[in-house]
Amino acid sequence: MTVECTLTVNGSRTVVRVSPSDRLLDVLRGPLALTGTKEGCGAGECGACTVLLDGKAINACLLPALEAEGAEITTVEGLVGPGGRLSVVQRALVEHGGIQCGFCSPGMIMATTALLSSNPSPTDAEIRDALTGNLCRCTGYVQIVASVKAAAEEMRARDSVDAGRSAREEERPVVRSGVAGRAGGG
Ligand code: FES
Ligand code: FES
After folding, report:
1. Is the pLDDT of residue 169 over 50?
2. Residue 186 domain-assigned?
């Protein structure tokens, strides 16, 4: 027996037919062809299948697809910007040796993305704690922690530039209305 399931994945709503026992991971990698999300243990122990559900990192191998209806699901494909531009976290892992075979990487990237959205300045211990459910057999984690710290630093720098820009933007209408007022007053 299959039933309709409406999922919002990477900003797009899509209707798929699923069996009640289908996991979110099955639907992502199957009908939706989003194979960036990996299956390792299939039992909630390796983190290879990590995706974001309403911004929180979850194991897609443990969640029935039907229970994800109504939530915003983000997979690693959803982090890539226009023209294939990598997210800050993706790029940091590449640049700091946090990726070797790459099997754990999508899960690491999603768990890191969730961490940095709630904690922009994590300590080493907080990073290791947040990634405790994500296993990597290649890197020994040192480069991964370094990658996460580099991503956090870049995101903080970018946010402070954005904040400065917004502050300047906020000042502009005052100037504009002054000009408009003088122009209108002729
Ligand atoms: S495949 Fe989901 S936690 Fe390992
Ligand atoms: S890079 Fe190979 S398992 Fe992590």
Report:
1. yes
2. no
Q: Is residue 108 part of a domain?
A: yes
Name the closest-CA residue to atom 3, ligand 1. Answer: 44
Query: Do the beta carbons of residue 115 and residue 151 sit within 8 Å?
Result: no
User: Does 173 score more than 90 pLDDT?
Assistant: no
- Same domain, yes or no: 140 and 87: yes
Using the mean position of ligand 1's atoms as its centre, give its distance from the Cα of residue 83 in Å: 30
Q: Is the CB of 39 inside a 6 Å radius of any atom of ligand 1? A: yes
The reply to whether 158 and 69 lie within a common domain is no
Q: Token pair 């040192």 is at which residue?
A: 142
Which ligand places an atom closest to the C-alpha of 48? 1
Query: Same structural domain for residues 175 and 86?
Result: yes
- The dihedral sign for the CA sequence 81, 12, 134, 122: positive
Which tens digits make up the pLDDT trace of 41-100?
999 999 999 999 999 999 999 999 999 999 999 999 999 999 999 999 999 999 999 999
Question: Are residues 28 and 34 in contact, defined by beta-carbon separation less than 8 angstroms?
Answer: yes
Same domain, 141 and 131: yes
